[in-house]
Design brief:
Elements lengths: L21 H13 L5 E3 L2 H8 L3 H12 L15 E4 L2 E4 L2 H27 L22 H15 L13 E2 L8 H10 L5 H17 L6 E2 L2 H11 L18
Antiparallel strand pairs: 1-3, 2-3, 4-5
Helix pairs in contact: 1-2, 1-3, 2-3, 4-5, 6-8
Length: 252
């Protein structure tokens, strides 16, 4: 499962990035979508170009623009530079600033959801439900975790249908546009501590080429996430190779 850790703010249309050529804008939005929870994008330049749907030259031009200063940028930090190079990819320089803005908006959304659920359920009093001892206004403000738990409780109360039996999953080929996600890269780095991000990307390319070229029923899998994890686990030992005849067998 893939998660988005970077929120795309509507104010991007007023930023200097929006006056850039179309391929540059597409690469930037793609990098925002690919960023992990630390603001890192794990990819090679050709991989980023393929994910963005632009040519290699257009991707290189966009990266050069993001790495350079921008005197008109609304964020003067780092002279307006948007990214920096890290081993295995890039890091968004203003990620922490926009993440804090996103978290503050999420907190307000939780508060609105809390207020809504309290209005739906109404105040309660074990001895006299129609005459609460405290109004909601006097109650302490809930934490985000409490608001989430309260919202889930409301959903559970209103759900009356029993869970249906899981439907049978069908095997399929590896999608033609398959690329490693940041979560898959992080999992591989955790499963194989000696690997580098660059090595994970090479293993991912090998994985994609192998299953794309394979034919027949063996090329279909029910769970490609599990297939990738097994591939990573088996990679250090290599895959089984056919035995070759010993040229010296039977020699006197």
């Amino acid at each position: 499962m893939s998660y988005s850790y970077t929120k795309l703010f509507s104010s991007i249309t007023e930023s200097t990035i929006w006056v850039e050529p179309y391929p540059t804008r597409i690469v930037w939005v793609s990098m925002l979508a690919m960023a992990d929870r630390m603001g890192r994008i794990w990819a090679s330049v050709p991989g980023l170009a393929r994910r963005s749907g632009v040519t290699l030259e257009e991707c290189e031009a966009a990266l050069e623009r993001f790495l350079g200063p921008d005197k008109y940028s609304r964020t003067p930090d780092n002279d307006g530079r948007r990214i920096e190079v890290i081993p295995g990819g890039w890091r968004l320089l203003n990620y922490e600033k926009y993440r804090s803005m996103r978290d503050e908006e999420a907190r307000r959304e939780y508060q609105r959801e809390w207020d809504r659920t309290k209005r739906v359920r109404g105040p309660t009093n074990p001895t006299n439900p129609t005459n609460p001892t405290k109004s909601d206004r006097d109650r302490p403000q809930p934490t985000q975790a409490e608001a989430e738990a309260e919202a889930e409780a409301v959903k559970a109360d209103t759900t009356t249908t029993a869970p249906s039996a899981p439907s049978a999953r069908r095997a399929s080929r590896l999608p033609t546009n398959w690329n490693l996600t940041s979560e898959q890269i992080e999992w591989a780095l955790g499963a194989q501590p000696s690997w580098t991000p660059e090595h994970v990307l090479r293993v991912g390319e090998k994985f994609r080429d192998y299953w794309t070229a394979k034919a027949g029923r063996d090329a279909t899998k029910v769970d490609w996430e599990a297939t990738w994890r097994n591939w990573v686990r088996n990679e250090p030992e290599g895959r089984a190779k056919p035995k070759t005849a010993d040229p010296f067998a039977g020699a006197v």
